[in-house]
Write a structure and sequence with these properties.
Blueprint: H1 9-12, H2 17-40, H3 46-50, H4 58-69, H5 72-85, H6 90-93, H7 97-109, H8 119-147, H9 152-160, H10 164-197, H11 201-250, H12 253-259, H13 295-301, H14 303-312, H15 314-321, H16 326-339, H17 343-357, H18 359-362, H19 367-374, H20 384-392, H21 397-432, H22 438-464, H23 470-495, H24 501-524, H25 538-541, H26 545-566, H27 589-594, H28 608-631, H29 634-642, H30 672-696
Length: 697
Amino acid sequence: MDPSASPSPSSRNPLSTVDVVVLVVYFLLILAVGLWSMWKTKRSTVDGYFLAGKNMTWWPVGASLFASNIGSGHFIGLAGSGAAAGIGAIAYEWNVRDFIYAAKICWHVNPCLARDGGLFLNCVRLIQGIVMVLLLGWLFLPIYVASGVMTMPEYLQRRFGGRRTQIFIAVLSLFIYVFTKISVDMYAGALFIQLALQWNIYWAVLMLLSITAFYTVAGGLAAVIYTDAVQTAIMLAGSLTLMGFSFAEVGGWDALMDGYPKAVPSIRVPNSTCGIPRDDSFHIFRDPVTSDLPWPGVMIGMSIPSMWYWCSDQVIVQRSLSAKTLTHAKGGSLLAAYLKMLPFFIIMLPGMISRILYTDDVACADPDQCDQICGNPVGCSDTAYARLVMELLPAGLRGLMMAVMIAALMSSLTSIFNSASTIFTMDLWKTFRSRPSEWELMIVGRLFVLVLVVVSVLWIPIVQASQGGQLFIYIQSISTYLQPPVSIIFLAGCFWKRANEKGAFWGLVVGMLVGCIRMLLDFIYPAPLCYEDDDRPAVLKYVHYLYFSTLLSFITLVVVVVVSLATEEPKPEQISRLTWFTRFDPVEPSCISSVVTPGRMHGLEATGGERDSNRTASQQRSDSSVSAIHSQSRLTSALYWLCGMERRNEASDHPVTHPAPVEAISSLEEKPRPRLVVNVNLLICLSVTAFLVGYWA
């Protein structure tokens, strides 16, 4: 095939009028849902804005968990990994999104690594990904709910005391959001826009971010969750449709299994394995010493970073904390676990089919040919999904798939925007402003979302200058070396009562230091290409990164245990309702006041003499409030409503200091019948997982 005769997918089948109409309907639907959620929910309090009033049911929580995890990078990267590496690449998706991005780009840039992966990793990650989201609902979330916290850094502050660990994790989380999650979402979104839509990237991204910022700033978490639910339905409908067309085109499952090992490009680097699928791609058990993916490292080395993402990352946990009861939160985890089984079928397999149908283009292995085909000398597997969309789907359905890709980008960005805003406002801003008013917190939270929008736009020129994605190899690998120590800190805090602040902090510092040393070595000595000799230092050549992840976790745990045992025990208030073993402790008055934040008392009535003493002041304020409302223009009133601050009054300009009643603290109480339903579904979900693993084994 002549590479020069391989135009981009969009030039073959440009979007028709019907496709454009579908896209317009999609944008109108998202705006309508955003406006409806703004009207339906209470956004004028801290809890209302950042936790959706803690009134969400199980199905939007579960859908939002799935949509937050599945970004545009999955459709570009996961399908590209399937085209380049086969089934094994799905393993990272079933674990944690940051790993799929890192693995995707590493496999994509390195043709030798493109032969890594395999069914064993796939099955193990299936277990880990699903089990981790279930661990969140059944083990970690009861602790977070009992503690009454709003953010994960806040939990560490209450559990260990002091501020340095809280600030450390808050800053680290914001760093990971901005430099790994937002960057890769923008990379994948920009790549798809350029490949399929042929839109001006700046105008396209500005339009998408404007819509995203509108309902995120105005509606808070409630708007994000409800729109995520719609985005999930759109993503599933579109991707299932494309999966059907793909299997019909390739000839079914047997044709996929037979055709993929034979999908070797006609032009390759001589005397190398470049572009050739692995012979053992469908084998489960691999050697623990010499294989590309040693099974002990897969079992342990990937589980710990996965636990960070699913059980202690603000983006995920915040959605579960918004559930009205613990049972609804567990139901959301169950729904997300069931949905997590689908990307293998709806994204990965179509990517593999794309390699079979367009082998010389999608699976190109010669740098010169790849540069002519897609403008990227390191490979064109990232075009696999967009190629299917533009080649196989008729008019109208192409517009639906455009909506799917945009939905993936928007849902991921809104989740990051809202969670990053929550951490900045509640953990960093309140550190420097010890007694902020509720009005101030509302303003700061919304303004920080706008700051993140600007940061997203600033990523565009960096994306365009990234030399085919090479820059993102280094960006994404950052999280690989930073996640294990954080996971260990949360594990120790939740399940070991003796862990204290000094142990947690120094364990975190030592773990980060060791991880950064390995990261620098990987940057200095990158993995060789498939036609190059491996002359890296022995610590990189022979110590697999999965084994290093296990070692890093062990080092962090040892430091936490040794330092904690050598120093003072935690205070009782740092234990009560803050660990798995003390989650049912009675609520102490000191604990009640410590978890109260501005907004959690909004709407609560004063009692006894306090009500009487405040009545006169309330009557005096009411006259001035009425006159102030009448003096406001309609435009100002509409602006207040849009921002969820239409109920602003004089009292909101002062910190809330009243103690909350016991009922204000989140309860772990569950009704017997719903609890039975979710527990039975837990067993069903685990059984389905075991069946899938057994089938592939």
